[in-house]
Write a structure and sequence with these properties.
It contains eleven helices and 14 strands. It is of the alpha/beta class and 314 residues long. The protein has two domains: 219 residues, Rossmann fold, CATH 3.40.50; 68 residues, Alpha-Beta Plaits (2-Layer Sandwich). Helix 5 runs parallel beside helix 6.
Length: 314
């Protein structure tokens, strides 16, 4: 197995008696989007600041693309593209001028600089506005250009700290599509957000942090399983003996409950989509004509609320 792009090992940071981050550990391999979720004050920003070398950790270790942040900070930082919550752009410069400025700080020059500016403008969908001053951009467009600036040096790890806060729906979708394409191209992504639907869409794995500790980690399905949440299946019947069908389906391993209602039968089960063939076979045996099947899977919001006692935006 190849070495992860980001490795965070038992990182801690305290302010007096307050443990802002307490022994946080996780890894992100190439091409994975990892969501770091937590309520306000949970320790997300402090963790990100230590990962990016902006804040000195009390203990622990961060490695980026094989480089230790403690021993080789310049090399480690050069592999990171950091996009902060606040827009870091010059309002009186055009989009292209901003990118050329940041590109030169990354030691890009000549044809390479011009080519890379064109590439990142295309990635974030701002090629046609490159000659306009940033002061004329909408808030969403400024955030897209902010991401472009973080991509200029082809980082192995892209850190996005709530990149869609306060943006219009069109720009938000453009940002999410850009992140998806970067992930597909092999970039490792660390993503924080207050929008659970973004985490559902973008993140291969999620780490939930609360009171400075990483209290859960895994895919959406793995996290749902840990709290015992089950899929809900509503099977609508046109005709047939739904009571017989409910009795038959209860014997299927993975089905926890089958309840007859006015529409047909409602099931509670584990990994409902995998059980559908057996469920439909049972309906056929019972002579039930099925009109529709709806599978409702528990989401990350339910997991987050169960583990932290708070909604994500609290």
């Amino acid at each position: 197995m190849s070495e992860p792009i980001l490795s965070v090992e038992k990182v801690s940071k305290s302010y007096g008696d307050l443990a802002a981050v307490d022994g946080v550990s996780f890894t992100i391999p190439e091409g994975e989007s990892y969501g770091l979720l937590g309520p306000n004050g949970a320790g997300k920003t402090t963790t990100i600041s230590m990962i990016c070398g902006l804040l000195k950790m009390d203990s622990g270790e961060v490695n980026v693309a094989g480089q230790s942040m403690s021993a080789h900070p310049v090399e480690a930082k050069s592999a990171i593209g950091y996009v902060p919550q606040e827009v870091a752009l010059y309002q009186d410069l055009t989009g292209r001028e901003n990118l050329r400025f940041w590109g030169k700080l990354y030691r890009l020059r000549g044809k390479e600089l011009n080519s890379r500016v064109d590439e990142v403008l295309n990635i974030v969908g701002l090629t046609d506005r490159a000659k306009d001053k940033v002061s004329q951009y909408s808030g969403g467009m400024q955030r897209r250009l902010n991401i472009a600036a973080g991509l200029l040096h082809r980082p192995r790890l892209l850190v996005l700290d709530e990149p869609t806060v306060g943006v219009d729906p069109q720009s938000r979708n453009a940002i999410l599509e850009s992140v998806e394409s970067l992930k597909a191209a092999g970039t490792a992504i660390l993503y924080t957000t207050h929008y659970m639907e973004e985490a559902e869409r973008l993140c291969d794995r999620v780490g939930i942090i609360d009171l400075g500790r990483l209290i859960a980690e895994g895919t959406r399905r793995e996290l749902v399983t840990t709290i015992g949440e089950k899929d809900r299946i509503q099977l609508t019947a046109l005709s047939g003996e739904t009571t017989i069908f409910a009795d038959l389906v209860r014997s299927i391993p993975g089905v926890a409950q089958a309840t007859v209602n006015d529409e047909g039968v409602e099931l509670l089960c584990t990994e409902g989509r995998k059980l559908l063939p057996k469920i439909l076979e049972a309906a056929d045996k019972a002579g039930v004509a099925v009109a529709s099947v709806e599978v409702l899977e528990p989401d990350l919001e339910a997991v987050f609320l169960h583990l932290t006692g708070k909604a994500l935006r609290d």
